[in-house]
Design brief:
The protein has 388 residues and is mostly beta strands. It is built from three helices and 27 strands.
């Protein structure tokens, strides 16, 4: 029975999410999408959503206690708050708090990308604004948020305007597109959006990471040929130059739909692009590799197999951490593998936490070179410090 449960759960992305909206009508537990970040003083901030409001809480004791929540949007609105499409938080160079989220519109699977900011430690937030200039009620969602080395706010998202146009013209179009915008004035305004690429997967999250030169890189699931769902890498140019997109994984997983399972990326100070991603080409697998865009990843490694999902990666100097959710007959285990040689080899997997109920996707955080895992569970938010 235990083996059967694991097989059923590891196949969930294929059966439940084979078409973009199918999951909307499936039974499910509470939405536990949350994001967290440390500021320069070590204060932890956590954002999630409840009752139509994006909420901010903070902790000065590494998550053991959390403040009362502050509601960012005074007027309640619908909010996507599941693992692949949850509210995001990023900190500016002077600890400005930036939050983005996707707002469902009336039609199924549509959305607007929303943003709010605080310059006083979360005491007050600006009125939320809609980032994208295109106001058609179509898919603009699965937002990703980052701040570059100059303090510029960069937001990318999945967008279906090109699919709509192609369909109206009777032309084929697989998946969606990735668009992005940025703000040079601390989030007061955003420039008109730029299209990064066509044929992206329609509901796998985009991961953004800062490179050593301060620019923002994107890692996301693309579509190649006849529904080959591999991943792409690009630097999101904000200087008027075109962004170059290159295929970055070569698993050749053919699936006619979105697995609802995006990748993750962490870039070291040495420029090494540490990545984790999921596919079920021969068997459900979480992979690790160091991206070499245009070529297969280097130091490729199988991190986990059946029952593993939603991995996250972080790096500090030559230490690399990978965490993921592992389903079993008793609920979920939070699993860890660690490398002390910059990803060339990883220690065996070990369990670091457990939940008997629903869980959100784990998120690795760093504070003063030490690693923590933010994990939102049905029993409450948890911050787990990793061994030093």
């Amino acid at each position: 029975m235990r083996r059967l449960l694991i097989i059923l759960f590891c196949l969930l992305p294929l059966t439940v999410f084979a078409h973009e909206g199918m999951h909307m009508d499936m039974p499910k537990g509470p939405e536990l999408g949350a994001s967290a970040a440390f500021d320069s003083h070590g204060r932890l901030y956590v954002v999630d959503a409840a009752d139509g409001h994006v909420r901010l809480r903070h902790s000065d004791d590494d998550g053991r206690t959390l403040s009362a929540p502050i509601e960012l949007n005074a007027t309640a609105e619908r909010i996507y708050d599941e693992g692949e499409n949850r509210p995001k938080i990023a900190l500016g160079p002077h600890d400005e708090i930036y939050v983005s989220w996707s707002q469902p519109r009336a039609a199924p699977w549509t959305g607007f990308v929303r943003f709010a900011r605080s310059t006083d430690g979360g005491a007050h937030f600006s009125a939320p604004l809609t980032v994208q200039h295109d106001r058609a009620e179509i898919t603009h969602r699965f937002d990703a948020l980052a701040v570059d080395g100059s303090g510029r706010i960069v937001i990318a998202w999945i967008d279906k305007r090109d699919l709509i146009a192609a369909t109206a013209a009777g032309k084929p179009y697989l998946g969606a597109a990735v668009y992005y915008s940025w703000s040079d004035d601390g989030g007061v305004t955003f420039v008109p959006e730029h299209k990064l690429v066509d044929q992206s997967c329609e509901c796998c999250r985009i991961e953004l990471a800062r490179m050593p030169d301060g620019q923002i890189a994107a890692f996301f699931r693309g579509i190649y040929g006849d529904n080959i769902r591999d991943h792409a890498f690009a630097v999101l140019r904000t200087d008027g130059q075109p962004s170059q997109v290159a295929r970055a994984t070569f698993s050749d997983w053919h699936i006619a739909g979105c697995p609802h399972h995006g990748p993750d990326l962490a870039i070291g100070s040495d420029g090494v692009r540490h990545a984790v991603w999921y596919d079920a080409n021969s068997a459900p697998t979480i992979h690790y590799g160091q991206l070499d865009p245009g070529h297969p990843p280097q130091h490729a490694n199988t991190i986990a197999n059946a029952g593993a999902s939603h991995a996250d990666v972080a790096v500090h100097e030559h230490t690399v951490w990978v965490v993921w959710n592992q389903v079993n007959a008793d609920g979920y285990a939070l699993m860890l593998r660690r490398s002390d040689d910059n990803g060339a080899h990883f220690a065996a997997a070990r369990e670091i936490a457990r939940s008997s109920g629903s869980v959100g996707s784990p998120q690795l955080l760093k504070k003063s070179g030490h690693a923590f895992v933010a994990w939102n569970t049905a029993q409450g938010f948890r911050l787990i410090e990793l061994a030093r």
